[in-house]
Amino acid sequence: MAILFVITFFSCEGNYKNVKQLTRKDNEPMGIGKEINAKYTDSGKVVANLITPIYLDFSNLGFPFKEFPEGVEVQFWNEDDEKSTVTSKYAIQYENTGIIDMRDDVVLVTHDSLVLRADQLYWDQKNQWVFTNQPYQIEFKDGSYNDGAWFDSSQDFTTFLSRKNAGVQLIDTKKEEKDAQENI
Fold first, then answer.
1. Are the beta carbons of 165 and 148 closer than 8 angstroms?
2. Could you state, in order of their start, the residue ranges of all structural domains in the chain?
3. What pTM was computed for the model?
4. Residues whose CB falls within 8 Å of the CB of residue 82, separated by 6 or more in sequence, listed in order
5. CB-hemisphere CA count at 13 Å for 93?
6. pLDDT at residue 144 in the model
7. How confident is the model over 130-164, as pLDDT tens digits?
8. What CATH number does the domain located at 2-179 have?
9. Helix (H) or strand (E) holding 88
């Protein structure tokens, strides 16, 4: 009798989980957050601040993701405590790949006054790489700028590859002449 009770109990528990899963609507988020202001720390120091009006957690799906349907602002600080900010009207973060897809009026302002504008921007967190296959514009602190069809870049913009671009680059001729004389 005891064995029959244990078998019945455990089979009901398994069925309860299945029934619970069946009552959930397809593609319904596991969690919803409103007016989120999340701060991420490393060793007690704030390294990023995520601000969004609404957050949808779909980590319950086969390909889990987090969605920010009303936009997002992310402020992040480097090891020298210099702040950069990126905003967009829509974003989605794929948990398995570490890729964040930001869309609609993406604006990135770096700590050293570089301003990047794009219709879409991907950020590969694992490889510390940003890229887009959409038109973009970069404005530099000195007033020079670059318009292009797409780019691939390290997240600190030290490596930057661009296609079909046009722009204006300001060159300090006095510095160029000084550098040339020093190399003679």
1. yes
2. 2-179
3. 0.72
4. 111, 112
5. 15
6. 83
7. 899 999 998 888 888 888 888 888 888 788 888 77
8. 2.60.450.10
9. strand 83-88
Burial class of residue 115, CB neighbours in 10 A (0-12, 13-18, 19+): middle
pLDDT on residue 181: 64
Position 183 scores a pLDDT of 64
Judged against a pLDDT cut of 80, whether residue 79 lies above it is answered with: yes
Q: Using CA atoms, how far apart are residues 135 and 163, in angstroms rounded to an integer?
A: 10
CB neighbours (10 Å) of residue 109?
17
The DSSP bridge partners found for residue 83 are 77
Using CA atoms, how far apart are residues 112 and 140, in angstroms rounded to an integer? Answer: 9
- In this predicted model, what pLDDT tens digit does every residue of 5-34 receive, in sequence order? 545 555 555 555 555 455 556 678 889 999
Residue 7 CA to residue 65 CA, distance in Å, equals 37
CA-wise closest residue to 90 among 75, 101, 76? 101
- Among the residues of the chain, which ranges form H helices? 2-23, 173-182
Question: Tell me, what's the pLDDT at 148?
Answer: 86
Beta bridge partners of 34: 54
Provide the phi-psi class of 56: left if phi over 0, else alpha when psi is between -120 and 50, else beta. Answer: beta
Instruction: Report the DSSP beta bridge partners of residue 39.
Output: 49
Query: Residue 134, Cβ neighbours under 10 Å: how many?
Result: 16
Q: What is the mean pLDDT of the chain?
A: 82
DSSP line for 105-131: EEEEE-TTS-EEEEEEEEEETTTTEEE
